[in-house]
Amino acid sequence: MSTLTASLDLPPTAASVPVARRLVRELLRAWGARQDHDDAALLVTELVANVVDHVGGSDCLTLEAIYSEDWLRLAVIDCSPTRPVVQEPDVERQRGRGLRMVQVVADRWGCEEHRGGKRVWFELRPQRL
């Protein structure tokens, strides 16, 4: 099987969060990806929401997907060089658990510099049947 890739620029607004989630689900369905589509959509939702919430005035938001038979890698790119921080859970805060969720659900994840900004990515293995 060859490697399949997709990249999409989105506006860094709250409206892009459900759009990214829906696009990931549709893309994985079209590719016949064997990874858990719900997990992939959930984690992309968290990464896109982080850009909207924490990067704010950034003029860029790109969603990337790479699929091979063995791995699915999804990434969100923004123009801010500020790296994300995994926060400790706090019952007083309504939010702030997104990266912790990525850390727990993804098989691998990370952050790397990308053209003056950053790429936050995660990888999922195929589901065991």
List keywords for this structure.
129 residues, alpha+beta, Heat Shock Protein 90, 5-stranded antiparallel sheet, 5 strands, 33% helix, globular
Fold and architecture overview:
- It is a single chain.
- By secondary structure, this protein is α+β, with helices and mostly antiparallel strands.
- It has a single domain (4-124), classed as Histidine kinase-like ATPase, C-terminal domain (Heat Shock Protein 90).
- 33% of the residues lie in helices and 27% in strands.
- It has helices at 16-31, 37-55, 98-105, and strands at 4-9, 61-67, 72-78, 108-114, 117-124.
- Strands 1-2-3-5-4 form a five-stranded antiparallel β-sheet.
- The mean pLDDT is 90.
